[in-house]
Amino acid sequence: MPVPTTPIGRVLVTGGASGLGAAVVAAVTEAGGTPIVLDLRVDAVPEGIDAVAVDVSDTDAVEQAVRQAAERHDGLDAVVTAAGIDTPAPIDAISSGNWEKIVAVNLIGTASVVRAALPALEASHGRVVTISSSLALRGVGDGTAYSASKFGVRGFSQALAAETAGRIGVTNVIPAGMRTNFFADRTEQYKPGPDAQLIEPEYVANSIIFALSQPAGCEIRELSIMPATEPSWP
Questions:
Q1: Above 90 in pLDDT, residue 189?
Q2: CA-CA distance, 25 to 121, in Å (whole number)?
Q3: Are 24 and 208 in contact (CB under 8 A)?
Q4: Angstrom distance (rounded) from CA 173 to CA 133
Q5: What's the average model confidence in pLDDT over 43-59?
Q6: Rounded mean pLDDT of the chain?
Q7: At 128, phi and psi to the nearest 5?
């Protein structure tokens, strides 16, 4: 017999103006849902999509933006926390400000968005999809801030799932490197080489839609998406 699925509904996507976030916005739209974008810059968001410019590391501002988005759309059905940054460098060569900013965007921003969205998600029995990384499975040199933040996102997601079990769904998605502009501003030593195994952001977005469309009472707690030759797995 056919497996029942849950409608996608109203999905708030942080980092939805580019990269994985933009792929999620496109996938939500294609699945018949309503994407709502929060990003630092929203000029690249397709016309007709509700988009708000906000820095997710600004806790007060992002919490206000999330609450206002829920009010505009009479609730939320899901949140996908795709906003993320990185500046690779040895720990003694990166400024404390840059180190803390990475953690603030990737980890604190994730928690702030979820905290603000929780009342709306509980009302709809909705879902949260957090994005960690293959560097939440294995840390690498020159990535202390990014790995710390993504290990933190994975731990946060596990704790959140335990705390809210039966009230909302929580899925942590663990992608390996994706073919996006995430690497564009890096120096050459930190850019993927010509033979790098990268996955398309659309592949990850499709897995997020899969998690969001699970029938009520069924939750996917963790999903890893990576090339078959990914060295960080297992």
A1: no
A2: 18
A3: yes
A4: 8
A5: 97
A6: 92
A7: -115, 130
pLDDT recorded at residue 31: 97
The span from the CA of 161 to the CA of 155, in Å, is: 10
Residue 226 corresponds to which tokens in the numbers above? Answer: 């990576």
What is the DSSP secondary-structure string of 149-191? Answer: HHHHHHHHHHHHHHHTTTTSEEEEEEE--BSSGGGTTS-GGGS
CA-CA distance, 204 to 226, in Å (whole number)? 9
Write out the catalytic residue numbers: 146
Residues 94-116 have pLDDT tens digits of: 999 999 999 999 999 999 999 99
pLDDT (average), residues 197-215: 93
In whole angstroms, give the CA distance from residue 119 to residue 38.
18
So what's the pLDDT on residue 123? 98
Q: Percentage of residues in the chain with pLDDT exceeding 90? A: 78
27-33 LR contacts (CB < 8 Å, sep 24+): 27/202, 27/205, 27/206, 27/208, 27/209, 28/209, 31/209, 31/213, 32/7, 32/8, 33/7, 33/8, 33/9, 33/77
**Among all chains, which residue has been given the structure tokens 């596990």?**
158
Residue 215, CB-side half-sphere exposure with 13 Å CA sphere = 4
Averaged pLDDT, 180-187: 68
Q: Do residues 133 and 151 lie in contact, with contact meaning Cβ atoms separated by under 8 Å?
A: no
The values of phi and psi at residue 220, to 5°, are -95, 115
